[in-house]
Design goal:
The protein contains twelve helices and 29 strands. By secondary structure, it is of the alpha+beta class. A five-stranded antiparallel sheet has the order 13-20-15-16-17, with no helix packed on it. The longest helix has 64 residues, at 126-189.
Length: 621
């Protein structure tokens, strides 16, 4: 080979370098492009009489500047950033609603209880009663509207999941096709098809925006792609289809499925994390479900306790109070919302009682597999529970009858959502302001015998839940004081003694036949023979005793019983805890989103330092 031939090898080699440089410059703004460099090596020398003589240069390879570790970091931080961004966007919408004094619940509750207090201040006014009834309807409308807003977010999630599944399938099909093309190129020439590799890496990175992915490189140039906990979606040149399905026990919940062969599909929702999929799932589980359940718990608590107190009062028609609000009742087979508290996936069970003061904001799954296991979705904990002698399992204010042991079947499975729909069901049950029970149904008058007698009865009112058939046939009855003892004609009193020095201000209870327990306080010093008559209060005009107790429910602690069974929170406190919980989660998501955004930027910058095109360097080349 002569000098000219050797020179030609150099020209050819450097022409390839210049062509590659031009390719780099042309793709300076191409997303996902990796800078390519030409590797040179000497041609085999020839043996002459004086030794080996070089024959020139050749192009040994054209390789892309690529770091698999840095690319993995880019994908990890991309998935995390998208996860927190989706979570933040949706959580912010919930936070904006519940914390808004006008659109949220705090203003409506305050207005309602202010109206109740106005009735207590002027129980003879029909105008204040009209305002109270109107405020009750506004409060119910607010509960309903907030529930519908949250349900709207749930529907949005389901729609977005279907869109994301379509995008993911398109990307996995592209990866599989690129795997096929890369395999053909590698098998045909043995060289790396750099541009195809870049395109595949870019598509995998786009997939990481939807869900966390892991990859395993194959010797033939293909890359297998796995989601979540090893769910394979691309194996060689084949992609597996993602889909969606309605949860068979919860029709408002959409699950993600993965093709498993033979036309079958497996639910993989619980195995997916990161990316937009992970953000939606975490928002649904950590913000949407707990917030909707907390709102429902508040509706059930406020409705239940207000109803109980209202039924202990007397309205202007001379009748005992009715239920003011509707709340779900799982023991009523005609109550649509009450029946949806329990989903029977397999087996038979029924909710026989709800103690609203002990309810949490969790949903539960109860499964029988030789023993009963209760899974708390909120705490993500499982405990073994044992039915009592009445075949009841009692937990967090819920009494669930699972039937006799002989009826239990392996795999029996129930989903309990005790508060999910309560805010939707919440509405006002009375239409006439005269039916507001502001008065006490029992009037008390005294007949003092002794000149120096200072005995008084105060703070009176019914305290026991009333039987539907309750009436006033047990009235009137008379309480008599004599020599430190208390006796009642036609009823019983507890306690039956009174000492002015030690018992003044203490609470006493009379059991009025056919009506219920009536409580009051005795103060002062009675004389022997003093009597107090307990009579039917036919219209209750001017009587505000029950209205005062209704107004006090705003700040009374009635909810969230502690381990000793004592309530620890008022209705206002419950709603404040919802605002605080969502606000805290939203703030944390904001911080995490900012952090992951910076980490993603840093990882992309580090990758660009290795793979990015530098125009100054290319110009020098």
């Amino acid at each position: 080979m002569g000098v000219l031939s050797t020179g030609i090898t150099g020209l050819n080699a450097f022409r390839t370098q210049l062509t590659t440089t031009a390719h780099n410059v042309a793709n300076v703004n191409t997303e996902g492009y990796s800078r390519q460099v030409v590797g040179l090596s000497t041609l085999p020398p020839t043996l002459e009489g004086v030794g080996y003589v070089g024959t020139g240069v050749q192009v040994s390879e054209i390789r892309r500047q690529f770091d698999a570790f840095l690319m993995e970091r880019v994908r990890v931080h991309t998935a995390s950033k998208e996860d927190f961004q989706v979570y933040l966007d949706r959580a912010s919408r919930v936070d904006d609603l519940i914390a808004d004094p006008d659109a949220g619940l705090s203003g409506a509750m305050q207005m309602f209880f202010n109206a109740v207090q106005d009735v207590a201040d002027d129980p003879t006014s029909t105008a204040t009663r009209d305002v109270m009834l109107s405020s009750a309807n506004i409060l119910a409308d607010r509960f309903n509207a907030m529930h519908e807003f949250l349900e709207g977010l749930r529907s949005e999630i389901n729609q977005d999941l279907e869109v994301l599944v379509g995008e993911a399938n398109s990307l996995t099909e592209s990866i599989a096709q690129l795997n096929h093309e890369i395999q053909l190129a590698v098998n045909g020439t043995g060289d790396s098809p750099n541009d195809l590799l870049d395109r595949r890496d870019q598509v995998i990175t786009q997939l990481s925006e939807l869900v966390s992915v892991t990859t395993v490189a194959q010797d033939n140039g293909a890359i297998n792609v796995f989601l979540g906990n090893g769910q394979g979606v691309v194996i060689g040149a084949r992609s597996f289809t993602l889909g969606t399905t309605i949860n068979n026990a919860e029709p408002d919940r959409l699950d993600v499925t993965l093709e498993s062969g033979g036309g079958n599909a497996s639910v993989i929702t619980n195995f997916l994390s990161g990316g937009k999929f992970g953000g939606y799932f975490r928002f649904r589980e950590n913000v949407l479900d707990p917030t909707e359940n907390a709102l429902g718990r508040l509706a059930m608590g406020l409705g239940t306790f207000f109803n109980e107190q209202h039924q202990l009062g007397m309205d202007l028609n001379g009748a005992l109070g009715k239920e003011m609000f509707n709340v779900p009742d799982p023991t009523d087979p005609t109550d649509v919302y009450g029946q949806q508290m329990l989903a029977l996936v397999q087996g038979s069970a029924s909710i026989t009682n709800i103690n609203v003061a002990e309810l949490s904001t969790a949903d539960y799954e109860l499964r029988y597999d030789g023993s009963w296991n209760l899974y708390d979705r909120s705490l993500q904990t499982t405990q073994v529970v044992v039915p009592n002698g009445a075949n009841e399992i009692i937990f967090d204010g819920i009494t669930l009858n699972v039937g006799a042991p002989g009826t239990w079947t392996f795999g029996d499975n129930f989903i309990v959502r005790p508060t999910r729909l309560a805010a939707r069901a919440f509405n006002v049950e009375i239409n006439d302001a005269r039916e507001i029970a502001a008065a006490s149904p029992v009037a008390v008058s005294k007949n003092v015998v002794g000149i120096n007698s200072t005995a008084e009865i105060s703070a009176s009112g019914l305290i026991s839940p009333l039987d539907p058939a309750a009436d006033f046939t047990g009235l009137p009855i008379t309480l008599t004081y004599n020599a430190g003892g208390l006796s009642v004609s036609g009823g019983t009193i507890t306690p039956a003694t009174y000492n002015a020095a030690t018992d003044s201000g203490n609470t006493y209870v009379i059991d009025i036949p056919n009506l219920g327990d009536f409580s009051f306080k005795i103060t002062g010093t009675p004389s022997d023979g003093d009597t107090f008559d307990f009579e039917y209060n036919p219209s209750g005009i001017g009587d505000n005793r029950n209205a005062l107790k209704l107004a006090a429910l705003q700040s009374d602690k009635t909810m969230r019983n502690d381990t000793a069974g004592q309530p620890t929170s008022s209705f206002v406190g419950l709603y404040s805890s919802i605002i605080g919980d969502v606000g805290s989660k939203t703030r944390q998501a904001m911080i995490n989103t900012e952090t992951q955004s910076r980490l993603k930027e840093q990882s992309v910058t580090a990758m660009d330092e290795v793979s990015g095109v530098n125009l100054d360097e290319e110009a020098a080349n």
